[in-house]
Design goal:
With 74 residues, the chain is mainly α. It contains 4 helices and no strands. It has one domain.
């Protein structure tokens, strides 16, 4: 086993960063929530919207190195 040091911010190595950014922009921008339950409710509304649009998710997370590895693995 070998440790690999990653840069502090590397969205290409952590594609979920793009999904969280989309959720922040689409669902959480300029909103002050009363409590954690309101945050959870908003998240529960936003996640299905992303899930219903696989082309958008693929455009945000389908980096060439990821799709190449998936094709090789199959």
């Amino acid at each position: 086993m070998r440790l690999l040091f990653l840069p502090p911010y590397s969205p290409e190595l952590n594609p979920t960063e793009h999904l969280w950014n989309a959720l922040r922009e689409d669902c959480f921008a300029n909103i002050v929530f009363a409590d954690l339950n309101a945050v959870e409710a908003t998240l529960e509304q936003g996640l299905p919207e992303l899930e219903s649009n696989p082309n958008r998710v693929q455009s945000m997370t389908g980096f060439n190195w990821i799709t190449s590895i998936c094709l090789i693995a199959n």
